[in-house]
User: What shape does this take?
Amino acid sequence: MICVTLLCVFLGRIATTAKRQRDAKQELERLGVSVMYEHEWHYSGKQRSLTSRLLEPVARHVDPNFDFR
Assistant: This one.
């Protein structure tokens, strides 16, 4: 029971963080600021980060059709 509670708290924190980030992005865009997430940055033709290069094999293992570019 404690493990389930801890898992729910952990997932709740992730969801809250994602919502705050999404809300902040929407507010900045409303103010006229261009905001891009890291995965959107790669599709814009900019150089890929070390993080995306390291995670690409993992993403391809999960979804072979996934493309970071």
In short: Helices lie at 2-30, 38-43, 50-62. The chain has two domains: 1-33, 36-69.
